[in-house]
Every structure is written in C-alpha cells, then in structure tokens.
Amino acid sequence: xxxxxxQGVASSANRRFWLVVVVxxxxxxxxxxETSMISVALSKLYGLYGDPVRVTWLITxxxxxxxxxxxxxxxxxxxxxxxxxxxxxxxxxxxxxxISALSNDLNIIILGRAIQGASMSVLPxxxxxxxxxxxxxxxxxxxxxxxGGTYSFSTGLGIVLGGVIVDRAxxxxxxxxxxxxxxxxxxxxxxxxxxxRPRTVSGPLDLIGGLTLVIPITALLLGLNSGKAExxxxxxxxxxxxxxxxxxxxxxIYELRQADPMIDVRLLKIPQIATVxxxxxxxxxxxxxxxxxxxxxxxxxxxxxxxxxxxxxxxGLVKMPTNLSSGVAGxxxxxxxxxxxxxxxxxxxxxxxxLAWVLLIFFHDSVWSLVLASVLxxxxxxTILFGCAPGLIIEATPEDRTSExxxxxxxxxxxxxxxxxQLIALCLATSLVSNAAGARFPxxxxxxxxxxxxxxxxAVSLAFAFMIPRNRTAAPPAPALAG
Length: 483
Known about the structure:
By secondary structure, the chain is mainly alpha-helical. The protein has 3 domains: 11-193, MFS general substrate transporter like domains (Growth Hormone, Chain: A); 208-261, no CATH class; 264-474, Growth Hormone, Chain: A, CATH 1.20.1250. The protein is built from 18 helices and 2 strands. A two-stranded antiparallel ribbon has the order 1-2. Helix 1 (3-36) runs antiparallel to helix 6, helix 1 (3-36) runs antiparallel to helix 8 (173-192) and helix 7 runs antiparallel to helix 14 (312-340). The longest helix is centred in the first third of the chain and has 34 residues, at 3-36. It is globular.
C-alpha cells in the first residue's frame, strides 16, 4: 500500500469514527432531555394538579423503569446486538414521550414517563457500540470522553429548553421535543451504524434474574419516596428499605448461581471494575449532586446569616456556566486520556474535586466563591469522571459484556445519587434557623456539616482513584463461572 493510499484509508476511518460518534451523541441527547427537562416543570405542576406527592411520580416512575431497563437492556444488547437494542429502546422512549404529550390525565402522563425510562439504556449501549466499531484504543478513549461530556452538556441544555417551553408554550410540548429528537436519532442509527455482528447465545436467557432485579430497586426507590412523605422512621419506609436490601441480597445470590446470568456480578471480582465502581459510588453519593447544596445556599435569605439571597432566575444563570465548563471538560478528557491515560485524568479530576470542597469549607460566603468553585473545579471534575470512568470499565471488561458492565455502573450511580440526596438533606437538617414568621432554613453549622461530608466523600473517591491498577492494555478473560 502506498503512502497516499494509507493516508486515505486513515482519513476515511477517522471520518467514519466521528460520524459514529455524532450518531451516538444524538441518541444520548434523547436520554439527557428526558432526564432533565421535567425538573423545570415541577413547580407549575404542583399548581396545576395540587398534589406534590403524585407529581413527584413523574420523576420516581422514570427512575424506577430506567434503573431496571439499563441493567436488562444493556445485557440484551450484549447478547442480541447493541444496534438492535438501541433501535428498540429509542422506539419505546418515543412511544412514552407521545403518551405523556397527548394526555392531560396525570396518571397517563406518569405512565408515559415510566415508559420513557427505557431511554436510559442508550448510554451503556452507545459505549458498547463504540467499542465494537472503533479499533484504535486511543480513538476509543476520545469517543468515550466525547459521549460523557456531551451528555452532561445536554442535560443542562434540556433544563434551559424545558424552561423556555414552560414559560412560553404548553409544558407538555417538552415531550414532543424529546420524541422528535428520538425519531431523528433513530433515523441516524439505522442509516449510519453498521449491522450487529452475528452472536451465539450459549444457553437459556436469564429472564428471572433480569426481571426480579426490578423488585428490590423498586422497593428502595419507593422507600426514598415514602421517607419524604411519611417520615424516615415510619414502618412503611423502614419496611421498604429492609425489603429492598434483603431482595438485592437474594438477587445477588441467585445470579451467582447462574451459568450465564443477566447481570454478571462476578465482573466485580475484576479489581479495576470494582475499584472504579466504588470511586463512582462515593462521588455520586455526594459531590456529583452538588446543585442540591449550592443552589439553596445561593437563594437562601440573607437574614439566615449564611444564605446569599439571589433570585431563582439568577441562580439558574449561575448554573449555566457549569454546564458549559463541564461539557468542555468532558470532551477534552478524551483527548487528555489519549495522551496521559484515563487513570491519570481521573486522579486529577478527583483531586480537583477534593480541593474545591476543602476550599468551600472556609470560603462559602460569597456568590463568586461558589461560582468559581463549581465552574472551574466541581462541575468539570464530575464530568471528567463521568466521561473517563466508562473507559476504565471498558478496558477491563470482556468485549461481550461491555454494555452490561457500563450499564451496571449506571445503575450503581443512580442508586448512590438517590441515597446521597437524602444524606445531604439530613446534613442540612442538623441545625436550623427560623424567623418570626416560622420559616426555617439550614444555618451556618448545617452547611459546614454538609461541606465536611462532601469533602469526606471526595477524599474517599480520590483514594479509590489511586487504587485503580496501572497500564491495563487488554481486557482480561471473563471471570470463571463455576461456583
């Protein structure tokens, strides 16, 4: 092959790579929009339907089905073809969006939201497709970083577009927008992505393991919902948590006994996969959900002695730069990982995250300190982790389990964020200040307690980042299935 022809082949492969990345980004925007847009409509819906608990099911129902479909859809993609499952999940998500858009009955809208949860399978399937079609390891790192960074930016864009729709149109038009994006992504997937390679299924499909995972996850998420409504010490809440924990334990035991499980928990025996997941869980249980702390602090009244007293609109404007910086960081992380390795980039990001929370313990009394910490350190660090961690999982995972392994990480992250949300709420409730009208807010001591908690989570995440094995060049063989 001549030098010119070799350059032509390389150029063609590079164009093909970026075309595949664009298609996968379009698919993940569907997921990002359906996850984020509804949040800006909640206040309006409380007024329309007069029942905050029922309205909250627009988020809870999505969370229930997304946790289950991520786990099941990812594994089915590994078995039957990731492109095929991506098409199916986009079709299901489109149907859910249309159901929510075309009915005024809150119960029907909730049903549509539950069906939309299928879109959460898109990201792990996209990672699997990327690994399958991209042969160059460094190029794969870039693609993973781009997917992670654009997902973070897209969720922020979804919030902005959702706000515009709520203010200027029928709020349900946001479902029409997400359906339109899903249809465009579906057409692009069918037109561009190569057909799945033939796969051999070695044994019967573990439907029991896949379907029963839904039950304990449902119990845990319902427990979180019940805790807000009934109290954390109520018999209902405690019973749901106990049932969820026992159910997860029983599910793990069952899966370990299967020759070809739907979710192979034996993958956690691989040190790199276990360490990366622990790092993500400790980050997700606190630092990754930083808006839950910084947004209230920005808006809290000045009379509380700790709040900064800015309006909700201004708080939203403050949040926007974090979406931009996190998007840039996520996309850049792939190129940094190409040069320095994903392990190094993740360690840098976790160190920056820890530095930010240490600084905020001492400097959280101005808008600028919060803005600079979140824009320059916290948001980019979280997005880099989101972009690079799947790459670390991928390089340690057998190819035929890629989507399953990244899907398992998505499930663990979602559960950790839900738990962390409540732990942060408990920290903020440790010490309150009130005025003559009876309004109560967290005081300086409560926020200090919360910042210390977030700093501790960041420190543990950084410790696990240092424990990630160095210089893995190839995925190990699948863990032994015996025993």
